[in-house]
Amino acid sequence: MTIQLYDLACGDQRIFFSPYCWRTKMALKHKALSFESLPWKFSEKALLEKSGQRRVPVIVDNGTWVHDSSQIATYLDTTYPDRPALMKDDSAKATARFVEAWCVSALFSALRPICVADVFNIIADEDKTYFRESREKMLGTTLEELSKDPTAERQALFQSMNPLEAMLSHSDYFGGTEPNYADYIVFGTLMWPYTVSPGLPYVDGSAVDKWFNRLLDLNDGFARTTAARAHPNT
Predict the structure, then answer these.
(1) Which domains does the chain have, with CATH numbers?
(2) For the segment 75-124, what is each residue's pLDDT rounded down to a tens digit?
(3) Burial class (CB in 10 A: 0-12, 13-18, 19+), 101
């Protein structure tokens, strides 16, 4: 049976930008599980009632509803142990938790001035009021005032990735020779700017650039071929 994934989409329902949904999509592909992305909007929270909360990603697997990207990854490893592990041992689980915390503290703070207004510009019209009110309350400023110096903000993003650049200079993936869930956490985070904002979310030719492109090409190019972009020529 095909797993259903509620996947956050823009007004153009080919553009899926949620960092957390991208983590789940890459996890599902890693496990070689068949799934269907169901385009979901912020205004459709009622569709998620059976999950017990109102945010994506949510998967429905043979009648079982699971929410939260980290919980979904654990569920997939537990439910499908005969397929490639996302987190093969306690060490991999600890790494994933650390990488998640690093993304929250370093990457997301650097990405918000770059991406949030771009998301607002391309989400469905019926989502705009909710998005503006919720993000401006969370960030303490208007969407228009969030970005003050785009060049400096992009440089701050590149600088925030210095630890990732250093690690990837010595290893192809967090998982060594093969990616694991920690890779998908960071990759999903960077798919946010990749899908909604002009330019690339890394320095061209860097170790991060090469790693990101390896993951775009993984699973017969799944992410590269399915990631519609708001700025396809940048």
Answers:
(1) 3-79 (3.40.30.10), 90-220 (1.20.1050.10)
(2) 999 999 999 999 999 999 999 999 999 999 999 999 999 999 999 999 99
(3) exposed
